[in-house]
Amino acid sequence: YIPSGTAIGKITTSGLYGPYVDGASDGTQTCAGLLFSSVRAVDTNTGNNLAKVGGARFIHGAVNTAKLPANSGIDANGKADLPLIVWL
């Protein structure tokens, strides 16, 4: 599972989203939001990892940083990329 609250960025070449990485250069260096709910990334029938999964993006509202998963990936630069989120 990919936990809710994981920071995500938009990959420039594909238009898909991946984990936010501040030092990247593929578009994911700009935080595009937080994953709204957990997403299963494994096919339950075969046990294989899925290359693409769907999920909702959280881009505005209030977020208690202490409630995010420990490996959410959010940092000060990521927070600055999301001006519509109030960080508590």
Question: Main traits of this protein?
Answer:
88 residues, mainly beta, two-stranded parallel sheet, 1 helix, 6 strands, globular
Number of strands: 6
Largest sheet: 4 strands, antiparallel
Give the integer mean of the pLDDT values: 92
Give the helices and strands as they follow along the chain: EEEEEHE
- The helix fraction, in percent, is under 10%
If you had to describe this structure to a student in words, what would you say it looks like?
The chain is mainly beta. It has one helix spanning 76-80; strands at 7-10, 17-19, 31-35, 57-58, 61-63, 85-87. The strands form two sheets. Strands 2-1-3-4 form a four-stranded antiparallel β-sheet. Strand 1 and strand 2 (17-19) form a beta hairpin. The protein starts with 6 loop residues before the first strand and ends with a strand. The model has no long low-confidence stretch (mean pLDDT 92).
Question: What is the strand and helix layout of this fold?
Answer:
Elements: E1 7-10, E2 17-19, E3 31-35, E4 57-58, E5 61-63, H1 76-80, E6 85-87
Parallel strand pairs: 5-6
Antiparallel strand pairs: 1-2, 1-3, 3-4
